[in-house]
């Protein structure tokens, strides 16, 4: 008597009374051996196919009508293997399994190519596999498989003058090769009003890509319309810029580096006036501080100080919610109302605490002649975030100073009165500003929690004054 294990072996299965040898005994080991050999013509996927066209489908006639595979004298035909799956090279070339005519045409093309001399054949490279675990790949091999990210290229598409409560500014709109968003640069630099023939104390902050000649067919009006002009544009002053004859500096030794702020957009804080964050206040404060006049000491002891207009730029990146987008940001607000801080809320939504990048900001600053190569000026960065400074330096921006931005409500060093009452110096009514908040201060428990998380979990460099205020 055979054991139960023996009964399960293929050889012990009952023989079928057909003209064909039992497939279980002869075919399965053959296919397994072929798979183990990893031959180019047979893969493990063929194990699920049949020697007969559609033979493994129960509803197919070939599953029960074996007369199709026998000759007139009853002897079995010499059948060849027919797979419903195209070879890998055909699939990589775009062949479809359910289109026999296309499959035949591709196979014909490949066969004709097989007759070509060996030297002319080009090996088709298969897609690179994902990096394996450390147990199978060395760190060097994993690193080499990572794609090299190309440098971001930016182009200033338009420039125009905008009056702000803090003085005139020039709005620059940029396109780039990294994403499809339109990023901005708000340049505060009255030297841009200077004519090309007028020397200035400092070089004007101008876009190289905007002033460049885009094509031989562009007219002077084309250049003026996109903002490539010099001086103050008016009905009586219409002069296109010439990259070879822009205003030049005559004194720079004692002039401090321009202030720069890299700011990420915040619809809720800048447009709606939300006080969950201080983004609207920071944007207005950055423009105000950059616009402040600069006092330059004289070269000699008897020389009187010289005062020049403030100069610098705000690079406005379209990175809502630290890069997670407005939808996720609104959902994160709900999680914050449930008791989570801003970092934990982002993580719970499947995002990183901060997903922003500064490649585009670095490219824009270099285009404006700020912080780039040896010909560009070094910059002072308005930020409390040391990671932002490190990111800009990795992009080749020369940062000589990090300038803190203390919240206006903290500058007053006193807690707010009941909701609706401004704080300290911000108690003035109708203080002009560049955002919905204007020149007033942002305050409230939501803001305090937000700033505390920035300090304790994101490394922002600010004093924790809130405990002192509550104790008083």
Produce a short descriptive summary.
With 472 residues, this protein is α/β, with parallel strands linked by helices. It contains 16 helices and nine strands.
- Please compute the radius of gyration using only Cα atoms: 36 Å
CATH class of the domain at 154-319 and 356-403: Alpha Beta
What is the CATH architecture term of the domain at 154-319 and 356-403?
3-Layer(aba) Sandwich
Instruction: List unreliable stretches of 5+ residues.
Output: 46-56, 113-144, 415-428
Give the CATH topology of the domain at 154-319 and 356-403.
Rossmann fold
Give the CA-based shape.
extended
Sequence-ordered SSE layout with sheet pairings:
Elements lengths: L3 H4 L15 H15 L50 H5 L7 H15 L24 H6 L9 E11 L2 E10 L6 E6 L19 H4 L8 H7 L32 E6 L2 H6 L6 H12 L3 E3 L9 E3 L3 E6 L8 H12 L4 H7 L10 H9 L11 E4 L3 H9 L4 E5 L4 H4 L33 H14 L7 H6 L1
Parallel strand pairs: 4-7, 4-8, 8-9
Antiparallel strand pairs: 1-2, 2-3, 3-7, 5-6
Helix pairs in contact: 10-11
Describe the fold and architecture.
The protein has 472 residues and is of the alpha/beta class. Among the domains are: 18-98, no CATH class; 154-319 and 356-403, 3-Layer(aba) Sandwich (Rossmann fold). Helices cover 29% and strands 11% of the residues. It contains 16 helices and nine strands. The protein has helices at residues 4-7, 23-37, 88-92, 100-114, 139-144, 208-211, 220-226, 267-272, 279-290, 326-337, 342-348, 359-367, 386-394, 408-411, 445-458, 466-471, and strands spanning 154-164, 167-176, 183-188, 259-264, 294-296, 306-308, 312-317, 379-382, 399-403. The protein has a seven-stranded mixed sheet with strand order 1-2-3-7-4-8-9, sandwiched between helices. A two-stranded antiparallel sheet has the order 5-6. β8 (379-382), α13 and β9 form a beta-alpha-beta unit. α10 (326-337) packs across α11 (342-348). Residues 46-56, 113-144 and 415-428 have low confidence and may be disordered.
């Amino acid at each position: 008597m055979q054991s139960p294990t023996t009964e399960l072996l293929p050889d012990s299965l009952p023989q079928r009374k057909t003209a064909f040898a039992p497939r279980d005994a002869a075919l399965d080991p053959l296919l397994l051996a072929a798979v183990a050999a990893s031959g180019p013509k047979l893969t493990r996927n063929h194990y699920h196919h049949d020697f007969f066209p559609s033979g493994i489908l129960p509803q197919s006639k070939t599953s029960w009508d074996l007369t199709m595979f026998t000759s007139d004298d009853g002897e079995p035909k010499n059948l060849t293997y027919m797979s419903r799956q195209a070879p890998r090279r055909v699939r990589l070339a775009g062949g479809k399994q359910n289109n026999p005519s296309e499959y035949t045409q591709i196979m014909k093309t490949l066969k004709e190519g097989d007759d070509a001399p060996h030297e002319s054949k080009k090996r088709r490279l298969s897609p690179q596999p994902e990096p394996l675990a450390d147990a199978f790949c060395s760190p060097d091999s994993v690193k080499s498989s990572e794609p090299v990210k190309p440098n971001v290229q930016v182009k200033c598409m338009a420039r125009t003058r905008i009056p702000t409560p803090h003085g005139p500014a020039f709005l620059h709109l940029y396109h780039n090769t990294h994403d499809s968003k339109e990023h901005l640069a708000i340049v505060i630099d009255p030297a841009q009003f200077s004519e090309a023939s007028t020397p200035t104390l400092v070089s004007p902050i101008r876009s190289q890509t905007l002033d460049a000649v885009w094509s031989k067919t562009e007219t002077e009006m084309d250049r003026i319309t996109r903002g490539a002009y010099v001086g103050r544009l008016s009905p009586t002053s219409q002069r296109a810029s010439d990259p070879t004859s822009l205003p030049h500096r005559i004194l720079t030794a004692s002039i401090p580096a321009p202030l720069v702020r890299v700011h990420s957009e915040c619809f809720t804080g800048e447009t709606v006036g939300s006080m969950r964050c201080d983004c609207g206040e920071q944007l207005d404060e950055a423009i105000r501080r950059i616009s402040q006049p600069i006092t330059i000491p004289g070269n000699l002891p008897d020389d009187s100080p010289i005062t020049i207009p403030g100069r610098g730029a705000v690079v406005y990146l379209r990175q809502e919610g630290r890069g997670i987008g407005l939808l996720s940001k609104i959902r994160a607000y709900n999680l914050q109302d449930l008791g989570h801080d801003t970092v934990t809320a982002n993580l719970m939504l499947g995002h990183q605490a901060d997903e922003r990048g500064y490649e585009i900001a670095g490219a824009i600053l270099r285009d404006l002649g700020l912080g780039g190569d040896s010909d560009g000026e070094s910059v002072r960065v308005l930020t409390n975030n040391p990671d932002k400074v490190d990111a800009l330096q990795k992009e080749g921006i020369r940062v000589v100073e990090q300038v803190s931005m203390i919240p206006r409500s903290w500058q007053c060093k006193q807690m707010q009165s009941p909701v609706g009452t401004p704080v300290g110096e911000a108690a003035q009514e109708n203080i002009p500003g560049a955002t919905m908040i204007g020149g007033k201060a942002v305050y409230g428990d939501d803001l305090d929690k937000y700033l505390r998380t920035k300090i304790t979990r994101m490394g922002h460099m600010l004093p924790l004054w809130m405990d002192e205020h509550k104790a008083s």
